[in-house]
Amino acid sequence: MQGQTRSALLCACLISLQLAGCASVVPSQADKFVDDASQALGSAQSSFAIEGRLLFKQGRRNDHLRFTWDHSEARDTLMLTAALGQGVARITREENAAQLESADGKKFAGRDWQALSQQVFGQALPLDELPQWLRGARPQWTGEKDGWKIAVTQAQRVKFKCSDTTACQQHQLAQVTSALVPRRIEFSKDDISLSIIVETWGDDE
User: Measured between alpha carbons, how far is residue 112 from residues 108, 187, 190 in Å?
Assistant: First the structure.
């Protein structure tokens, strides 16, 4: 159980951090999947709710977890569960504060996700990269950060509707827009690999 919790915490740290944002949007529906890397990813969204799966490998170890992630400019909440539905970890982020709590009651806190990962694992993980791809802030499909290789292997076109009509009018934003966002991302370094598969955006069926 301790090994599973540690792997879950690593997965959590890798996909959790404070995000920069633009106008608030709410996803309304997803279209077909895309594997044509010549199409630029984006445009960037600032608020979203996603669900999906995490596949974590380190050496001979393999872990399969499910996640739900609610993000706004002010707060992140990430829940991780095992394949059979047992809770593994809960991660929250607010301004100048980040906290991770495992299912066995252990708690870790830091001023941000970088400090939190340093405390939990003894090294700062590249937490600023993966979520930027998730929200469509990176147009490219591949990248590298501090020795970590990042590759989007599948994307999806998601339609968003503006959640604040007045704000959208003030900023001359369309009431409905779309973004090409990653559906599957591979994150790897040495013998560690993390695959993230986004299955649901917002209230999509």
Answer: 11, 21, 25
Contacts for 6 with CB less than 8 Å, ≥ 6 apart: none
Note down the domain range covering 108. Answer: 2-199
Q: What is the pTM (predicted TM-score) of this model?
A: 0.76
Q: What confidence tens digit (pLDDT) does each residue in 113-170 have?
A: 778 877 776 666 766 677 778 888 899 999 998 888 999 999 998 877 665 555 555 5
What is the C-alpha to C-alpha distance for residues 181 and 204, in angstroms, rounded to an integer? 15
| Residue 53 within a domain | yes
Residue 100 belongs to a domain: yes
Assess if residue 205 is contained within a domain: no
Distance of alpha carbon 147 from alpha carbon 156, whole angstroms: 27
